[in-house]
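tl;dr need the bound structure. longer version: we got a ligand (prephenic acid) that a collaborator sent over and nobodys looked at where it sits. i said id run it. heres the input, straight from their email, havent touched it
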Amino acid sequence: MHNINQISIIGLGLIGGSLAKTIRFRNLPIKTFAYDANVSTLKQAKDEGIIDEYTTTLTKQFLSSDIIFLCAPVEYNNELLNTIKNDLSSNSIITDVGSVKQNIHETVDKTIIEDIFIGGHPMAGSEKSGYNASTHYLLENAYYVLTPSKKVSQDKVTLLNDFVKAIGAIPILLNYNEHDYATAAISHVPHIVASSLVNLVKSSDQNGLMKQLAAGGFKDITRIASASPDLWKQISLTNKDQILKILTNYIQQLNTFKDNLMEDDADSIFEFFNEANDYRNSFADPSTSIIEKSYSIMVDIPDELGIIGKIATLLSEHQISIKNIGIVHNREFENGVLKIIFYNNESQLKSIKILKSYNYTVYER
Ligand SMILES: NC(=O)c1ccc[n+]([C@@H]2O[C@H](COP(=O)([O-])OP(=O)(O)OC[C@H]3O[C@@H](n4cnc5c(N)ncnc54)[C@H](O)[C@@H]3O)[C@@H](O)[C@H]2O)c1
Ligand SMILES: O=C(O)C(=O)C[C@]1(C(=O)O)C=C[C@@H](O)C=C1
């Protein structure tokens, strides 16, 4: 990419690793350097050809890259920034991928790095952590928030904006307070709610029956309760003020529902669900939004060792690239099916034909 020859990633976990894998997968002509507290992760990424070089100390050369990405949990990013801020060059851009922006902007404000700092936050992720959970498609089509410091030049903002586009994400410029309030509502409080539901069931489940019966609804709404406790402790504490506003509002809503239920107020209860139904259904429809439609199929698979590999090999022999593949268990498919996501409609249709010709049962999605 024009003007970006080298980047440095500090923290090669889920997000840092996905950034590096995306650069490789898209063949961007950029050298990727990485630093992580975990040296075996660095060695693995180098052996896999995902990064060009790694370092176990934050050297001047490592810190002279065109863009330096802080990709550790939010409080560590802050500490790391304090450690390196005097060694950064005015030619670089320093950015982060943290879920909260106020804390890091406060560290940056009124220091020399205000001229080179642009906050960042890709709106994509997973309940899994670490380099092994990272993928080359995690950031694809995701909104990627940028929160430039007041003093950073327009050229630098344009450069980072272009980089975000080059990795297949969608840049969106925001002020950091706006960002923190919005993410408190759509990400941070939902993580608190998911974990509180799981803790609620744990403390109410006398004989393990609830755990046994838990089906799609409970599993859908609580997937994110499996996320890293250390990361979410740090996010909660650094975005305390915004989370408290949203949480207070949420508790009021629950109390209103409780009152309506106690009073058998059927109209209000209906309206509660109806309003949520309407608003939830108005969220981006994958077929009309700029977020690309996902081309997926479901395949009934026999319970045999190596079946996923067998199907993946069959498709790759026909030059079909798979975006994602995994087993799905739900009530619709009692025995579990293989869900395969493709990059385009052509691959989806071609796969259906091939798999059917090998007598697999295929459901289009
Ligand atoms: N998990 C998500 O869904 C998600 C989504 C968007 C943004 N984020 C943000 O991205 C950042 C990273 O999250 P993640 O999910 O990739 O975490 P992660 O745990 O998967 O990765 C963090 C990496 O940083 C390394 N690390 C931690 N402290 C370090 C230090 N002091 N020095 C060097 N390396 C260190 C760890 O060894 C690990 O490899 C966080 O700030 C988070 O808020 C996370
Ligand atoms: O999909 C998930 O598992 C996520 O939790 C991703 C998610 C979120 O949507 O809350 C988590 C944290 C981020 O900072 C951004 C995205």
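gonna send this back to them w/ a short note. The chain has three domains: 6-174, 179-281, 295-364.
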